[in-house]
From TrEMBL:
This is DNA breaking-rejoining protein. Residues 1-22 form the signal peptide. The lineage of its organism: Bacteria, Pseudomonadati, Pseudomonadota, Gammaproteobacteria, Cellvibrionales. Keywords: Signal. Gene3D superfamilies: 2.60.120.380. It comes from the Bacteria.
Length: 153
C-alpha cells in the first residue's frame, strides 16, 4: 500500500535525532534554534565602508542527540565564512541556504572551515550536532563557532 509507505517514511523522519523534524522542545532530539547577532568589525585605516564585515563568536556544548541551529540573516553576494573547532571529532554541521532542499555544505571533525559566496537573500542555517553513533553513546562536544559575513567588493 502506498499510504503505508508514506506513513512509515513520515514516522521515520519524525524520530530522526538530527533531522529537520523535531519531536518537540526539550526532547532529546529537539533542535534548539538561536538567531545570530553579528557585530560590525572595525574598519582598518584606508578601508572602504563597503568592505565592512560582521562577525560573531559562539561557544557552546551539545550532548547526545541535542543539536543547535544557528540562524544567520544574509544577502545575495555576501561571503559567509565559518570556522568551527570542537573537542569531539564526531561533531558535525551542515549549512543550508534559504528555501534549499539540501545542505549547501556538510563538515565535521575537530577543526573545520567553510567559506562561500551566498546564492540568495534570506536566513542561512548552521546546524551543529553529533554523528549518530557518538550521540547514541551519549558523547558530548564543546565547540567554538566563528562566523564572518563580508559584503562583496
Amino acid at each position: 500500500m502506498q499510504i503505508s509507505r508514506w506513513l512509515l517514511l513520515f514516522l521515520w523522519l519524525l524520530f530522526q535525532p538530527n533531522g529537520s523534524f523535531a519531536a518537540g522542545a526539550g526532547s532529546p532530539g529537539a533542535v534548539q534554534q538561536e538567531k545570530v547577532e553579528l557585530r560590525n568589525t572595525p574598519l582598518k585605516p584606508g578601508e572602504a565602508t563597503s568592505s565592512r564585515s560582521q562577525t560573531a563568536h559562539i561557544t557552546a556544548r551539545i550532548n547526545g542527540h541535542q543539536s543547535i541551529e544557528y540562524l544567520i540573516d544574509a544577502r545575495t553576494g555576501q561571503s559567509l565564512e565559518l570556522d568551527i573547532q570542537s573537542s569531539n571529532s564526531q561533531a558535525s554541521y551542515h549549512v543550508t541556504a534559504p528555501a534549499a532542499p539540501r545542505a549547501l555544505h556538510k563538515g565535521r571533525g575537530h577543526h573545520s572551515h567553510f567559506i562561500a559566496t551566498l546564492p540568495r537573500d534570506g536566513t542561512y542555517r548552521v546546524l551543529i550536532y553529533l554523528m549518530h553513533n557518538a550521540a547514541q553513546d551519549g558523547e558530548s562536544a564543546d565547540f567554538a563557532l566563528n562566523i564572518r559575513l563580508r559584503n562583496p567588493g
